[in-house]
Amino acid sequence: MVETVTVVVLAVVIYAVIMYEFLWVxxxxxxxxxxxxxxxxxxxxxxxxxxxxxxLIPLFFRTIRKFMERVEEVAGMKARAPETQPKEAPNPPQQxxx
Length: 98
What we know:
mainly alpha
């Protein structure tokens, strides 16, 4: 439940920031200021790309974890529990014809 809420909140925040930047650039008050606004927006994204990467980790953590588990199973790298063999009673002495 917590993971779902985290993903939804992060997705909404990321979408809101992207839409705000788009609207800020596209519908600036003055037409000559649009290139300057676009440059400022791109500069902000360029300087803060690492923050975006950190936000993507919680969004795709479960997906990446499940994928890695499947890759490990297919490649045979998954750690398996040691096989336990049933304990056998020692062989009784054989009675031969005497």
